[in-house]
Amino acid sequence: MKYESYRSLKTVAIAGSTALMSTSSLFAATEDSLLQKYVIAGGWPMILIGLLILALIALCVFNFMNLSKTKFCPDDLKAGLMDHMMNCRVRSAIELGASHPSYLGRMMAYALPNVDARRPEDLGRDYVEDAIADFTINENRKSMTLINYISLIAQTAPMLGLFGTVLGMVGAFGTLASGDGSADPSALAGDISVALLTTLWGLVTAIPSLTAYFFFKNKLNNLVAECHHSAEELLNASIQTVNGDAHLAKIPEGVAV
Fold it and tell me: What stretch or stretches form a coiled coil here (predicted)?
């Protein structure tokens, strides 16, 4: 009895192993077939398109990590700067901004030294805004460099696809011309595969690249606009503190503030 059970168990184990090996072989054959059918059959231009896809993924990951609120306009830094500016501690605000690596911190450290206490009516707002504009031009150029590379991929990928199409068609006509009226169907199919697959993968690369370019560009613009709005609020807070009494004196009595 014990021997028969052992024999049955051994039979089931062998059958399971055989089925598992057959399934693995089937999946391996399917993967090889798909890889051969949709990638390798595209020829050597697929290598260049593959490099563009890898570059696109790397740029998207980097921009996704870099373009965040914590790296541009963090709430804790804005609260600290607002506290200093409302109490007209401009030097402390400069030191706090310089100690923070965010966009807002570096921008305020660059712009606030232009505050002019000899002009209490606006604290030299024009000079501060000019400094903010200069800082924005320099910093946006750095941030846009990696975003523009995504646009470059979006324009290059279809061109590589078109190049593969021309290459495949030239090969197809060459195959037709080399035969004596009966071209080799397998060779002709290989040339047509190069023509169509490179076009397909060129478009597959270009469409998400174009979407990612405008997504990250708009995200950068929104983050920079938020930093500018915060800087304006900080400067207005100090001006309001300095000219609070004068501002109230201009309001007719009986009008709610």
Answer: none
